[in-house]
Amino acid sequence: MKDLTDLLKGSNSHVIQGVTASGGVVLGIKVPGFNGVLIEDREFSNRLSAKLEAETNCKGFISTDELPKYGFTKEDKQAIEQALEVGEQDVGIFVADKRETAEKAIAIIEKEVAAHKK
């Protein structure tokens, strides 16, 4: 898990601006071999978002597969992928929230993704 807060403080994303302005953080992970899965398997993606909100009150996650979007630029995407060491077959997933909530959300994402990969 990497803290991407400082990297994204200058982002035009309203999500990031709102969270960091209130003292929150942006935490992300690399998921090897998961490129495209969250886009192609909407059912899994939606279940994961619902689980995050139900268990942590985190409003969801963003994957590098979706970017540029939500106010993130192509340069933001490249910086995130570089920071997380995301390769062509991988995906970066990140959440923005209060530190404790973001850490819990990342833990859930790691567990659910691992189970989905089996």
Could you please describe the fold and organization of this structure?
Helix content is 52%, strand content 15%. The protein is an alpha+beta fold. Strands 1-2-4-3 form a four-stranded antiparallel sheet, with helices on both faces. The chain has one domain (2-117): Gyrase A, domain 2, CATH 3.30.1360.30. It has six helices and four strands. The chain starts with a strand and ends with a helix.
Helix tally equals 6
Q: Give the strand line-up of the largest sheet.
A: 1-2-4-3
DSSP helix fraction: 40-55%
CATH topology: Gyrase A, domain 2
State the order of secondary-structure elements, H for helix, E for strand.
Answer: EHHEHHEHEH
- How many domains, as an integer? 1
Q: Given the helix and strand composition, which structural class is it?
A: alpha+beta
Q: What is the C-level CATH assignment?
A: Alpha Beta
Cα(first) to Cα(last) distance is 21 Å
What sort of overall outline do the alpha carbons produce when their principal axes are compared? globular
Largest sheet: 4 strands, antiparallel
| CATH superfamily membership | GAD-like domain
* Low-confidence region ranges: none
CATH architecture term = 2-Layer Sandwich
Radius of gyration: 13 Å
Instruction: Please tally the β strands and state the result.
Output: 4
- Measured by DSSP, the beta-strand proportion falls in 15-25%
Oligomer: single chain
Mean pLDDT: 94
Short description:
The chain is α+β, with helices and mostly antiparallel strands and 118 residues long. It has one domain: Gyrase A, domain 2.
